[in-house]
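Bench log. Compound arrived from synthesis this morning; before running ITC I wanted a structural hypothesis for how iron/sulfur cluster sits in the protein. Inputs:
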Amino acid sequence: MKHHYDVIIIGAGLAGLRAAIELGEETKVAVISKVFATRSHSGAAQGGIGAALGNEEEDSWEWHMFDTVKGSDYLGDQDSIEIMTQDAPRTIYELEHIGVPFNRTAEGKIAQRAFGGHTSGFGKAAVKRACFAADRTGRVILDTLWEKSLQRGIRFFDEFHILSLIVQDHQCCGVTAYEIATGEIHVFHCKAVLLATGGAGKIFKTTSNALASTGDGMAVAYRAGAPLEDMEFVQFHPTGIYKLGILISEAARGEGGILRNNEGERFMERYAPTIKDLAPRDMVSRCILEEIRAGRGIDGKDYVHLDLTHLGQEVNDSKLAEITGFARTYAGVEPNKEPIPVQPTCHYMMGGIASNADGQVVLDSQGSTFAGLYTAGECACVSVHGANRLGCNSLLDTLVFGRRSGKEIRKFIHSIGLPPIAEDVAQQEKEKLQILMDRPGDENYGAVLAEMQAVMMDKVSVFRTQASLKEALEKIRELQQRFTRVSVGDRGNCFNRELLDVLELDNMLDLAEVIAAGALFREESRGAHFREDFPTRDDNKFLVHTLAGYRPEKEPQIFTKPVTITRFQPQERKY
Amino acid sequence: MKCQFTVFRFDPAADESPRYQEYRVDAEPTDKILDCLNKIRWEQDPTLAFRASCSHGICGSDALTINGHVGLACQKLVRDYKTANNFVIEPLPLFKVIKDLVVDMNPFLEKHRSVKPYLINDEPPPEGERIQSQKDQTVIEPALRCILCASCTASCPISRSNPDYVGPAALLRAFRYVYDSRDTATGSRLAGLDGNDGAWGCKTMWWCTDVCPKGIPVTRCIGQIKRAIKQKDKKP
Ligand SMILES: Cc1cc2nc3c(=O)[nH]c(=O)nc-3n(C[C@H](O)[C@H](O)[C@H](O)COP(=O)(O)OP(=O)(O)OC[C@H]3O[C@@H](n4cnc5c(N)ncnc54)[C@H](O)[C@@H]3O)c2cc1C
Ligand code: SF4
């Protein structure tokens, strides 16, 4: 089936919905999502969204900007960070006006709490900057935006899985998508496409991400010629529930929770004397693993304790209700009485599809753009998070740049007509899928997936070396070969999950290769990327963004792009 | 430990009527029911269809009937059931089956839409936030926990007998906006809910409250709508 729209948005998380609302009034726009909209992983965001409202304590957007730049280990582009932090208060008020039910202060203003790496006075002391609704901030924002989109009458294609971008004469003019309930291939012909497909945490064994976080949009764009930027920067959140990876938000430490080793010691005091447990995530994750390496994990195992027992039942059961519930259900501990066993969990991709602050996909170091193709949210790299994202800055990123993309797209579509596309696009996709379905295979999908997740976790996570990365790359290439022999056993057309699993695995294998290749290239340690063989930051050689270009049947082509520095010159990063 | 799973299967393209299929799964007591279903799909039978995403009870995808009780497959663990490691897995009741454990959620969403699930306030907003007291925010807090999993509506005896009844999940959403101190459409909202397909359809049977995986006092919230309708002249 063929559809015509002005704009197609892929992804119904915060980024996609915010852009849709921006465009909804006067343009013909549809949102495609492989899971039903409110199942998008934005709904899992717990802790909060950052903005210098100053409702609880004195604050300023310049401090927020400085914290974000420093948190990024000076790799974030400062022009974009300035846009984001300056626009943050307006973004929060706008959410409040459309109905987001934030927690309130005693005067009835939006309540705020402390979060890792957010400080006042350019790094002097922790500051309350995270606006929140208990520990279900993402859930309530997602619901509110979705319901606003319903009110606007925006068309949703839920449970449609995109397969590829339609590119004609270097311009993106549509997408092909697979309807999960029927197996039918749909062609969406349009003037502009926005990719807002979220993260890719499922590449790693232990993750806070959803089954749907498989990086499809990044992979599809990459194969269509859009470079991926800074993919080696993968955030490991310090506090995932031991073995399961389910997130215990930084809000737990923002409310006063403390990390302890097997001696009961508050070890973060040693590593970050000023802000202690509220140091940024890359640091805290490394510190936890250092403690474990030094034999100070609990019972000699690879986890430490997150202690919330002193916060009191009132705080635990109201402001942290969801996460204390997770601890009870999944870890079997009562957080009012016992500490929660935690270890780092793969959480967020700082890297993504290279883009500028207006959501345009960028092709090279000169900033040339990919006509008709836009991106926002976790799958994009603007870059505002650089080498390490601060908590609460992702929800902000999705909304600020989702809106800006919408505005830019509106300008673009008014300037052009609907470009022609080939007649046989659907047929081509159908044939590709048929080949996949028909190929005889002696390889098992589950085995290839598990081996990829294991090697990425063992060799490409918090600590990396040249040797570990080379081993990982070799393994990934072996898995890519084996993938060509993975067959699809399910012949059906209705909810054929196996076919989708296989398509997602293909995407993840490509991204895994880019992550490892970028990490091998970057011979320094910066933010979340830590090379044990190059343990310091090297601004002379590597104060640059990494770009990875797709080459069929070959390893990715790695090149670089300068970092934009405006207000804050790189300094040593201490907390 | 070995567990026996008896799973509802129905593929409209191949089956004339539903059937049950047996699987044996090696599971730990701490495994989620969802982990077991994933194992079946990844290791034994790729054709088994079910929905799931976040895997920790926040996206609302995987409400199922597990041993006769509605619950989220990712929130229920093997050790939660005292059925000698035997599990019967079926789709949500009430809804039409699309395939195996996947049901058609469209009627549920239609009802959701019918309660105008968005803030209505035509007064121009201030430059900053609207002021709302902590007390007013706390009133709607229970409803903010809802993940639209449909467990309550699927379990509701009234929804079963009256297909036009809007159902507990939609009423909970209505409650969220009726009691939001920032909403100005309270009167028309209450008028829309005043009927047997609306709030009065609820006969206080508590099934919704019993099954809700987020511990929301759904029946009590519906009761608050009824109270507001009775006092319609006063804004709640
Ligand atoms: C547990 C957890 C807690 C977090 N807490 C916070 C927090 O407190 N504060 C903060 O700032 N950030 C937080 N984050 C990060 C933040 O939530 C995410 O980065 C952000 O929500 C991503 O939003 P998004 O719109 O880019 O993508 P998502 O919300 O992930 O949405 C992706 C969308 O793309 C669609 N999609 C993907 N692939 C396809 C395909 N092939 N075809 C069709 N559609 C597709 C999906 O269906 C979905 O609708 C948290 C993250 C996690 C995992
Ligand atoms: S009220 Fe509870 S059971 Fe009903 S849809 Fe919401 S979360 Fe599910």
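What the model suggests: Chain A touches chain B through 57 residues (CB under 8 Å). DSSP finds 16 helices and 24 strands in chain A.
ITC booked for Thursday regardless.
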